[in-house]
UniProtKB/TrEMBL annotation:
Disulfide bonds: 48-69, 147-168
Residue ranges annotated for the Link domain, each copy included: 2-97, 102-194
Listed GO biological process terms: cell adhesion; central nervous system development; glial cell differentiation; positive regulation of neuroblast proliferation; skeletal system development
Protein name: HPLN1 protein
Record GO terms (molecular function): hyaluronic acid binding
Protein's organism: Alaudala cheleensis
Cited PANTHER family: AGGRECAN/VERSICAN PROTEOGLYCAN, HYALURONAN AND PROTEOGLYCAN LINK PROTEIN 1
């Protein structure tokens, strides 16, 4: 499976524990456990924003220590903020997905699309607009690689790169995050997902 950090359109540190649980479910995944985050860190996950884990703790993985992430002179590791109030405290979340039962693909379309057009284009193709978890699963588990920014169901725009190259993701294999653009802009393609029954 694959662990991925998630924050909503509102920006970072906007989810209490229960909202974080829901956010992962909406992205076709579950909240990651500490063991899953630790394995992801050992595989190179480096993320400087603290996120909820399934046990109610708040942690983040650092492979390259630097000033804003606990300090330059600290050792790499999973940084632990401890346990926080599940209703009042707000962080990002680490989600986990291993579930991949369908076809994830970039829809070849003659024009760039608004968000609503992207949703309709996938439906017309017999699919649904893909979720963030589905993109991470396709990238990590299937080596999916596409240098085209596309809409996803949560309104974000991302693209998966498993073979780093100059204009796409020069230094590392990654799911690149473009942002949460205005949904009315016709600037992007779309990633679709068709589940196998």
């Amino acid at each position: 499976g694959v662990v991925f950090p998630y924050s909503p359109r509102l920006g970072r540190y906007n989810l209490n524990f229960h909202e974080a649980q829901r956010a992962c479910a909406e992205q076709d995944s579950v909240m990651a456990s500490f063991d899953q985050l630790y394995d992801a860190w050992r595989s190179g996950l480096d993320w400087c924003n603290a996120g909820w884990l399934s046990d109610g703790s708040v942690q983040y993985p650092i492979t390259k220590p630097r000033e804003p992430c606990g300090g330059r002179n600290t050792v790499p590791g999973v940084r632990n903020y401890g346990f926080w109030d599940k209703d009042k405290s707000h962080y990002d979340v680490f989600c986990f997905t291993s579930n991949f039962n369908g076809r994830f693909y970039y829809l070849i379309h003659p024009t760039k699309l608004t968000y609503d057009e992207a949703v309709q284009a996938c439906l017309k193709d017999g699919s649904q607009i893909a979720k963030v978890g589905q993109m991470f699963a396709a990238w990590k588990l299937l080596g999916y690689d596409r240098c085209d920014a596309g809409w996803l169901a949560d309104g974000s725009v991302r693209y998966p790169i498993s073979r780093p190259r100059k204009r796409c993701s020069p230094s590392e294999a990654a799911v690149r995050f473009v942002g949460f653009p205005d949904k009315k802009h016709k600037l992007y393609g779309v990633y679709c997902f068709r589940g196998y029954n």
